[in-house]
Structures
1.
Amino acid sequence: MPEPVLWCVSFDGAPLSGVVVESLKLADAFRRRGHRVLLDIGYDIKADKGRFFSPYTDEAACLPGWVELVRIDGIDRIPWYNPAFVRSTLAAIPAGHQPDGCYEAVVEALTRRIVATWQRHQVTAVLVENGTLPENIAYTEALYQAIERYGPTLGAPRPYVLWRDHDLMWNSEPSSGKYGQAPYALTPKPRNSPYIRYLALHEEARRRTLEWAPHLNNLQVLPNTFDFEHTAVGAGFRESYGVPAEAALIARCTRLIPQKRADREIELLARLRHRIHDRPVYLFLAGDTAEHPPTVMALRAQAERLGVADRVIFGGRLAPRDLPAGDGYTVADLLAEADLMSFLTSYDYESYGNPIGEAVASGVPYLSTRYALYDTVYGRKGLQAPVLEITPDDHAPLTGAFVDEVVALLTNPLLRSRVVMNNTAQGARYFAQSKAAEVVDQLLTGDVHGAERSPVYGVAGQLSVPPLGATTRMTVVIPVRDEAANLPAVITSLAGQQGPDGPLDRSLFDVLLVDNNSRDQTVTLAQELAAHHPGFRLWVIGEPEQGVSCARRTGMHLAARRAQERDGDDTTRRFYLVSADADCRVAPDWLWELLRAMDSDKAAIGVCDYYYDASHFVGRPLLWDAIDRTIRSRRVAWSRFGGFPDGKGFAVDRRSYQRVDGIELSYQLENGRFVSHLSDDWDFGILIRATGDDIVYVPGSRVEINPRRVDHAIDEVVAGQAYGSGGIITMRDIRVAGPGGRDLTQAEALQAWEFSIKDFMPKNMILAAVLTPSLLDDEGVIDLLSPALAKAMAARIPQITAETGLVDYTPIHSYKTPCFRLYFEFAEELFARLRAKVGPEIGYPPPLPPCLQEIRDTGDEERFREFVRHYCEDRESGEAHDYFGNGGVF
């Protein structure tokens, strides 16, 4: 059987670059599967690199020994095909002009010679890097035609080409406009072919590719990958380059060209020289000094001007970190000696930023600008680093705060160790080289989509989830939209759930992720994360109607249906639907505590204990005081009344869920359009309460609330407008990030607390009693309220119910009027009991509305009750809503 042969063609036109290195990482996966690897660097494709038709000389010295350098036979003999033709064609693109008249003839000649060369080398697989970059659209078109002509010679139609674009038009200096503007009408678009499998670097590149070429149906995300194993390094690196053993070393591993902005590292070095006195700080610039001499001259002059020329080392070109070749040092050698990797690149030049991944894989802290795609590639992966803010016009001043972070990493060994541990663990989840190997395996086995190999069996928009396992007791439902930044933590916490005797048996539960139109890499990331936990079952489905209520309902309904199909009418088998939010964190025994409590109490709903991490509010004591008082009051009330479910974490028995037809969807108008109501969890609890089923509070099942929920809405809470004003209810999704950071003033803190307690008391202490009056006979409730107050409320509730004329409190918000009325009538007594049970800091009731205070001052309690009724039932002014309805954020 002939040896399989891989042909690699790079449009980068450079012997060593990030694109070439990434191409060779994929090629190495082919090599390990027996392929001979041929590489066309692309000299005869790019005219701007000055190497068109130039012969190879010493390029192989910087490449692995298993790479053979090749090029297309006779390409220099094609009529009209020369650098001038390439430059004129490229110039026509932004101008919107058609190519020269010889264009078709050049394409045909290129196509024939590509096919002939592949036939001569007996090529069996092709790897294209950056083929869609419009540097040479004639070559791109010829490559597509060659793939179609050559494919049938390999037998039955099957994929044999991996086509990956690192620098799509929108990623490669879009502000320069050198490729024109979207939709790039003259650039050959990716086309569907039985022979081609397309790869995008990340979800953003995939999304933008599909915006430009929506017809494309075979596009998968494959990030750049890095070797997280210990890479062998050479000795004597520091001595060879004159770096003192005691010095701190900052590494910069990029080309020395203007767009990479190495001048920022030199400026940083000058700042650090005045901040760090116990050891010298050196900067190592690894890059070919001959590639762009004016840049090197400018950098040397800058270093002289700032007085750090003796601390800047121009180290020349180093061999790749993951693919060392020949003699000499590699990037791995540099990183083994470096204290930091710096990547203060320009705003829109980078499409990926390999130096960051190399640093993470090498166990070296890094610092970076927040270039255009930084958050997409690295920032949402849970990595920790000083990040310099940068504007689209490439303005990025070295702020004092940024320099302080760099100093801390260079001088605090404990901090450095923690950063390295975090980044290594997070980075390995996303960027391990095994991902490239999996793609190669899928191509070689004909498994184009690879769906069967993934632990995620459902895909967005479908309900293709396997039947429920025989021993599964719980399904965790998580609505998600653009939650890639939070998924690693929540999935890791679910995969690491503990039972009473160690790890929780993973057969007891599975996870249903409901994707609600995510625009980031949420779904792909879920697949990747699940693969890291053997036996952890995670399914993904889609819900196209926007709204967390819609997503939660879809997931819960599917989970209930799977349990019903398995259990039928067997009432002895209890199965629980568990709700979680992707931005919250659950305790290690979260599921076990819920399961134990639900089985023991035979309750319909189990409510978790919610808390905030106080460390997130350091420096914000007034805000934290308001939050802490609210949380402590809630725990006391829920321990007696049982509480109400919150999407952040609760469990419901499957049969109880189906008995009330599950989560109720309601709609409200927002900017003239109907949107789903966001209070689905609370309203669902009301439905269950009204049936008389029990709700149990499970304090051992703990959920940490993401502080962004507070940060997003705190200003509006203080202003009394968090959930609308003027009687207009606005149930907002507060999951998106807010400004955060600031503390409240004394006046704002008082306002926030008053709104919080006014929201808390009717909903958490009064509502349960309205829905289930028998609770007022419970010993725990009597202990909280006192016998006298419990008796008085028990007598008053049926009177108010009769006066209100409502017999069903389950419709959304119909419970408000009686709860508000009971609050005004019993506020003094209720606050007195909270002061006794929670602490004196609970204080006294907030001031009454002036209109009611005026009546109270008359001393006529009957008249006061009468006007409380008018106030709470007034649907015209909305005064009662504005008084109560803005504090539920805590």
2.
Amino acid sequence: MHKGISSALASLSATAMVMALLVLVSAPAYGDAHPSDPATPSTVTADALPTVQINGVVWSQVVIGNVVYAGGSFSTARPAGAPAGTQTVVRNNILAYDIATGELINSFSPSFNGQVLSLAASPDGSRLYAGGDFTTMNGESALRMVALEPDTGQRIADFDPQPSNSVRTMVATESTVYFGGSFFRVGSAWREQLAAVRASDATLLALRPVVTGGRVDTLSLSPDGSKLAVGGQFDTVNGTKGNSSALAVVRADTGEKMAYPASAYVRNGVGGDGSITSIASDDSTFYASGFTFGRQSTLEGIVAINWSDLDTRWLEDCHGDTYSVYATDDLVYLAGHPHYCGNIGGFAQESPWEYNRAMAFGKDAAGIITREIHGYTNFEGLPHPKLQTWFPALSAGRYTGQNQGPWNVAGNGDFVVYGGEFLRVNYQDQQGLVRFAASSQAPNLRGPEPQGDAFVPSLSSTTAGEVRVRWQAAHDQDDTKLAYKVIRDGKNSAPIHTVEADSTFWDRPGHSFTDAGLALGSTHTYRVFASDPSGRESRSQTVSITVATNDEPSSHYAQVIEGDKPANHWPIKASDEATLVDESGDDDLKLNGNAGIDPGSTLTGASGTSLRLNSGIAADAVRAHRPNEFATELWFKASSNQQGRLIGYGNAITGNSSNHDRLTYINSLGKLSFGVYERGARRTITSSDSYTDGKWHHVVSTLGANGMRLYVDGQEVASRASTTTALELDGFWRLGSDRMSGWPSAPSSGFSGLLDEVAIYDRQLSAASIANHYQAGQGQMVNVSPVAALMAEVDGMAVEVDGTGSSDPDGTVTHYAWDRRRVHCTRGSRNPRLPR
């Protein structure tokens, strides 16, 4: 845990932690635009609705009724769909548009000579306040802060506070306007970055907290008007030194600073390398967002703090700056550029980084933050909210030179609106402004998105009359649950299989279906359709296969492996070609580089072929979820110059992973090593003998409650009992080459030898099972638990048992065991009577 917050997190009350853990157990489902659970909150859809565009940047938005007011730095507006520089009208730094249609409101056209940084509305909607860097409005003096009539844009003359410098944030009640920025005077009176005036005539009020070391960027007022949350790029409030949180809560009448627990770990005013960028509020909570550069400041996501007692409700620890927050009745939307949410159950940090500039969270705590692995501030142990399935694609822009997209988010009950400098939304040109609507008011155009060729079904036929169809889930920008149907022989055919399943862009599991009863030797085509709850559909390519006429024999070794129920098993058969078929699960491996099937060498009693890597790889496109209990098993054959990585886990399917772990490799000395990261430190165990003798060897690496253990040729050769966990990384299993730098005696190149019979288990294998597997691979007959096929019929105390579907490689099944009630039968006997 990073220095500076470990003691703060350790001081969380036992009651708070118990409550957080209880919430984790009952975590809600993903929220999306069309949730299947009525109790789950609905986001707006990811449809980018046609909206007026601007030629610069929008910094602030406020919604009054059905009108969106947008302020920023721009000089023209143009209709949705119009290319830049066409169909423009003059709008100097402020405009208004209809939230239902997205069309510019022509009757509102005040003109400011400098950028508008902040907008706020009076509670009754009768006034619109604008603040910024401007000094004139419509050619007349207007020093940085004015009040307007929302319908006409006319200035309200009695309101003229005249702050000495920029106004960056405002919040208004019927009687008072609070504002902050980088000013040091209001009129002729001293006020340091924060002040309040009477709404009716701009008379300066007594509120005067002393903010030093920077500016105020954001304000929010508690529902009862007693507390004012203050955020920005400042060091101290009222002379208080310490953690420099850049977030303060003061009494709205006196400016007295109030204590709150999050100040111990939200410290965005340290060294000037961070800020609290936005504060939004609802009836019970305020939500503060932040950015950092460097590692002195801490918060890049959102912290939720109760208004009542100022205790922390949760902290959203996605990384990538957050610039603006908007709270609805059920959800919290953000604008920013998160690129990592892996420690709250969200998406991993990819290489290169992928930015999600518009996202949403539930308002309830839904889990506990796990340890940070990328060098960011570690908020491990705090509660976090649920990341929702809502990911519209907003691009970066060029106007500010900061390479950002949206800077602001606002809305009303039916719409969420984003403003910034982005140039495209959902891969279509749309500059600076965009609307998103609830599903009842949206076209619901965003459907399932297949990713690469993973959605193309993978076909195999190893049993006479059967075809196994495998595909990887698609994902959808605004729906978690998708429906799949498998079509055989033409798009007009009825589905032969349907299934519903959850997926997100970072979590796309594999699916499979076995199509049985087909004519031997016949040829069939298959296609997979994916659809979302609104009926939008995506279709895979069509692929074909000829049905096997004979059962491909299952080796004795494969039967031994399958008896121990691996999560994945890749026997490596001649028919695999470019894809290794998973005999136990749904995770076929794609071959890349020089990897290919070798027909000339195989393990005794196995399938007859092996995998020659030649420094290539075979990778699983399905992301695994940071297993801390597992076993990897394979056979390898290597010569003296064929050291390399055999199997491992990383965050890339091809190329070198930027983060990697859980690897078994032949080191530069020809010895076998098994390594994991344990809380940032490399832990390895290594055999004493070398194994690059051109013979087949069996290696099993296990991690779990029994520590790290390495087995070679049926015997344990190294262990480390104290290491029971690995890197908190969601990644991909892959065979062959990947990053090896930094590991002890790391080989200089990828593995170029042979692999066979690869398996992964979701538990540690016992020493006895490992010895059995080795013996089977040596050609010895090993007892295997029979696999019985039970009939569906039960007549009183009698149960139908069909022994013909049972298998036992070394003899005939002679009896079946039924838990507490034994069934005795010989092969083929029917209706055995259960003992009473």
